[in-house]
Design brief:
Strand content: 5-15%
Largest sheet: 5 strands, parallel
Shape: globular
Order of helices and strands: HHHHEHEHHEHEHHHHHHEHH
Length: 303
């Protein structure tokens, strides 16, 4: 009950009431703008809110990434698709036309789902995002529903799995770098200071020191060595923003029977092991500057 309430608070964007200056609230304000819970149970101690601080089973397993076998993401994608197909005869996917949701649709078809048992919910912009794939889906007989509000249409689907591509963003880094590509490789606390200034958030030197101490200890708890701004951004996205992203689709519908059938495709322990095992590669190149590297493993899978 307490954990579900904590997930609900994150999913429904409880605003950051008051000008709280603790290191966790300040960084929440920078990255998301509302109360978001650290799912690994370390940063919550700084929050003025009494957040549920117990690790769930998935988080405990995620932290075992160093002792886990090296993850082949293509095999993990196939495994996830197969598990959904085994449980559900009908599948509805929220398809944006982007890399994440296209990888989801590709995996379901590749692993044997009958195209006629696949329904795509897509907005008018989805076809513009990836017209070739849209035409391909149309040609093989996939059902298509144009929808500007995915959650409203999820409510109408009475059977089968409801699948999103959510949580993929948290596996590969953070889109905060799009605001300024040159900060990617900066020492991480310097990047944080510039990001606060860019957002018009005044932060004192002693508050930056508190942030440095808190997040250095957080990275150590997760077994990560924090040096560059790109690594800090990943850490927040993976550890904190995940709390919101993983629950938001479920919280936009009103019936529990619908929630029970929603799958965020990339929300599994094996995908998290992939992200943590590849943490050291984040600094190798700025995928926001060189777009051919943006979520390259998913693009290779689609290809």
């Amino acid at each position: 009950g307490v954990l579900k309430m904590a997930q609900l608070i994150s999913a429904k964007r409880l605003p950051l009431l008051g000008n709280y200056r603790d290191p966790f609230s300040l960084v929440n304000r920078l990255f998301v703008g509302w109360v978001c819970r650290d799912r690994f149970g370390f940063l919550n101690q700084f929050s003025p809110y009494n957040l549920h601080n117990e690790l769930g089973d998935a988080e405990k397993l995620a932290l075992e990434y160093k002792s886990a076998d090296p993850v082949d993401i293509k095999s993990v994608i196939d495994k996830r698709a197969q598990s959904i197909i085994e449980k559900h005869d009908q599948v509805t996917v929220s398809w944006s036309g982007g890399v994440d949701s296209t990888a989801v649709v590709t995996s379901l078809l590749k692993n044997g789902l009958d195209p006629k048992k696949l329904t795509i919910l897509a907005s008018s912009s989805s076809e513009e995002e990836y017209p070739y794939f849209y035409k391909y889906l149309h040609d093989i007989g996939v059902n298509y529903i144009e929808s500007e509000t995915v959650s409203a249409n999820f409510e109408k689907v009475e059977e089968g799995a409801l699948v999103t591509g959510w949580c993929a963003d948290q596996l590969f880094g953070s889109n905060i770098h799009i605001r300024n590509l040159d900060w990617y490789h900066l020492p991480w606390i310097e990047g944080v200071a510039l990001a606060f200034k860019d957002r018009g958030i005044d932060v004192e030197a002693h508050e930056l020191n508190q942030i440095k101490e808190a997040f250095s200890a957080y990275a150590e708890k997760l077994g990560l060595h924090l040096e560059q701004f790109c690594e800090f951004a990943f850490l927040f996205n993976f550890g904190v923003k995940w709390s919101y992203v993983s629950q938001e689709p479920q919280m936009t519908v009103t019936r529990q029977s619908i929630r029970n059938r929603i799958y965020n495709f990339f929300d599994t322990v094996e995908f998290q092991h992939f992200a943590l095992q590849n943490f050291s590669t984040i600094r190798e190149r700025n995928a926001n500057r060189f777009l051919k590297y943006y979520k390259r493993p998913l693009k290779e899978y689609i290809y």
